[in-house]
Amino acid sequence: MSSIDFSELQSIIEINSWTKNKEGVDKNGEVFAYWLELLGYTLTRYPREEIGDHLHLTTPKKEGKKLLLLGHIDTVFPPETFEDFKEDDEWIYGPGVCDMKGGNYVALQALRNVYRKFGEIHNIDFLLVSDEETGSDDSKHLSAKLAKEYDYCMVFEAAGVHDEVVVGRKGVGTFFIDIEGIAAHAGNHYTKGADANLEASHKLQALVALTDLEKETTVNVGKLSGGIGANTISPKAHLTFELRYTNTQERDRVLKAIDEIVATSYVEGTTATLLGGIQRDVMQPSLDQADFVKKINTLCNIALPTEKRGGVSDANIISSQGVATLDGWGPYGDGDHTIHERASKKSFEKRIKLVTEIFEHFLEGKI
Ligand SMILES: [Zn+2]
Fold first, then answer.
1. How many angstroms separate the alpha carbon of residue 70 from the centre of ligand 1?
2. What's the predicted TM-score (pTM) here?
3. Structural domains of the chain in order of their starting residue, each with its CATH number
4. pLDDT higher than 70, residue 2
5. What does the DSSP 8-state code read for residue 110?
6. Cis link prior to 100 (omega < 30° from 0)?
C-alpha cells in the first residue's frame, strides 16, 4: 500500500485537458500554479488564444546554478473519451497519471518537501507548457528561449521500467513533398503526360534508402496519394514522411539528401516542392549531462539507471540549447496515450524521495 494521498492529483486528472480544450488546460494550469505560489513561486503567464496558456513559475535568484523543471499540462484525450480516476493497491489510473500530470505532481511534492525543510526555494523554476502532445509547435520557441537562463533541466515525463532517466531522445522531422506532373489520356496521349505517381515512387525509394539502421536513422514515408483514375496519367502526387535520428551529423546528411531528391526529376516534366522540417531536434547525451548524473549518484549514493528513447519530448528542445538535461523524472507507468494509462504508486514514492534529495543537494549548492 502507498502512503501517498492521491486525492489532489485526482482533482487535476479529472479536469479534462486535451490540448485543444483551452479552458480545461488553463484550469489545470491555474490549480498547479496556485500550489506553486504557496511555495513562494511567482507566475509569468504566456497567454495563447487557441491553446492553453504557457506558465513560467519562478523563484528568487541567488548566486549559483539555475535549475529548470519542465512539464506539460495537456493530454491526448478529448472530453468524454477517458476522464475517470481510479486506484487499487498498486496503481492509479487516469488520463495523465504518468503522461504527465503525475510527473508534474512528483516535482510539486518534492518542492513541498524542500520548502518544509528550508523555508524557502531559490534558483529552481518550473515551466508548464500546454501543447506538448501536438508537437510543442508553439511552446518550443518559448522553451528554447527560456532554456538559456538555466544550467540544468529536469523533465518529468514517465520513468523507465527500472526507474531509468532518459539521457537521449531521437530528433524528429516531418516533411511533405508535393509533386506536379502533366495530366494526359492514358490511351490517346500517353507520351504527352508526365507521371507524378511514377515520380513519387522514385522519390519514395530514394527517401527510404536514406535509412541507416546502424546509426539508428530512419526515414518513413508513412503516407502517399496521387492520381485521378486508371485512364489518366497522374498530374499530382503527395508524400508525407518522417525522419528520426540520433545525432546532428545524421540530421545534416539526410536533410541535404532530401533537398537533392526533391530537386531531381526522375520522370521528365515533373516538379516537386518540399514543406515541413525538423520538429524537435535530437537530445544527445553530453558531458555536462554525464556530470549531472555523476553528481546525483555521488550525493544520493545511488547508481541512477539511464536509457535512450526513440520518442521525442520537450527535453529535446531544452537539451539542444546546450542545457544539461535529464528526462524521465516522473513515475513509471504504461498504457500512455490509451485509455489504459496507469502509473505505479510505488514508483511515485521512490521518485518523490529521490527528487527531494536532489533538490536538497541543489539548494545546498552541491549540484
Ligand atoms: Zn504524451
1. 14
2. 0.88
3. 7-169+283-363 (3.40.630.10), 171-280 (3.30.70.360)
4. no
5. H
6. yes
